[in-house]
Amino acid sequence: MHQMQVSNKIRTLKRSQVKSKKNIQPNNDDNILLKKARAKISETATAPASPQLLTKKRAIVPAGSTFTENSTYPPIEKIITGEWNVSGDANFLVDFAIVGFPKCGTSTMMEYLEMSPYTKVAQKERCELGSAQQASLIRKLYEELPPGHYKRGIKCPRDVENDFSMKNYGQFFPKTNFLIGVRHPVRWFESFYNFRLYNNNPMPPPEKLIGACTKYSRNVCTHRARFHQFLANLGKTPLATKEKKLFKLGGSELRVNPLRGNVFLYHVEQLKDDNPLRAKVLREDLSSFLDLPKTLPPMHIWNKPGKNLTKEQLDYANSRRLDICHSNHTELRKYLVEQANNSFEW
Asked: Which end of the chain has fewer CB atoms at under 10 Å, N or C?
């Protein structure tokens, strides 16, 4: 049975420990480092790119590299018959997938991997597998990710919670490996709630979002913070009786879809870790997991919501911004900390 590769920092987390931290944004020095990192990548990509690749600003591994997968594609007719029937092997189009969780650095991870000449990620979220649109997904990836010597990836931060999506990975992309980010449920909820506000979405009071999501919740609810349950559904752990007790109804809510692919699990704070040694370990672990010929460059990317709001919209969002440590939200925190404890025990 494949096991999940857990990046080092997760092992040190203490249950129900919540630290208040400000969002870390790149300063001027960070921006200089980012430009240098991108310049270094451009220098390594010495092979001339096709006009299509230049338009998309994609770097391809230099000619003569030992990283020689997928230099040509089979005809699309060998993969898809008619409009919707997937009759051939399309796994070469998805070497890895960033499948969760929302507000756990998935956009940062996508943009970071796009910097490397050895990895390319589809530019938009590709969530077609959750609605049985696998043929459409294959066609789009076939056009967007051209033949070349690099690893191909997609991002859909809600796929890990969708058992239908994960079943389709198992059926159509059985060799795909998965990257999954987590964070403390309390901070996750606060970040997700404020993310909706800063994207100009009306939100109900936070206490109204305890339990399952509704059509008014904008997909923000405490139910989605049960990370351990969604991870257990991947079938990478024994799921013995003791383990099942951590889930409601003695495990009857589990919908296990055992997957062949491996899983890389990281904590969101690792993506902005200012400790050089730990940051290097993460990059080395990730590079090894993706089977890259060289270690990935330093990470200096961090996404911030609300950058497209008008001043009036930003002022309104700031006035409603959730401070989850406020005494008004004791019940909400208690519920989320209980889920954090279960995840820790799992």
From this structure: N
Q: How far apart are CA 226 and CA 228, in angstroms?
A: 6
The whole-number pLDDT of residue 8 equals 55
| pLDDT for res 244 | 80
Strand extents, DSSP E, the chain: 4-6, 80-81, 85-86, 96-100, 119-121, 151-155, 177-182, 263-267
> How buried is residue 130: exposed, middle or buried, by Cβ count under 10 Å (0-12/13-18/19+)?
middle
Is residue 70 exposed (0-12), middle (13-18) or buried (19+ Cβ within 10 Å)? middle
CA–CA dist 265, 274 (Å, integer): 19
Residue that has been written with the tokens 């059926």 in this structure = 171
Low-confidence ranges of the chain (pLDDT < 70): 1-4, 6-70, 248-252, 301-307
Q: Which residues pair with 6 in a beta bridge?
A: 265
Contact 279, 273 (CB under 8 A): yes
Q: For residue 265, which phi and psi values (nearest 5 degrees)?
A: -110, 125
Q: How far apart are CA 342 and CA 292, in angstroms?
A: 35
- The count of other CB atoms within 10 Å of the CB of residue 309 is 17
Which residues partner with 151 through β-bridges? 119
Percent pLDDT > 70 in the chain is 76
Residue 36 sits at φ, ψ, to 5 deg, of -65, -40
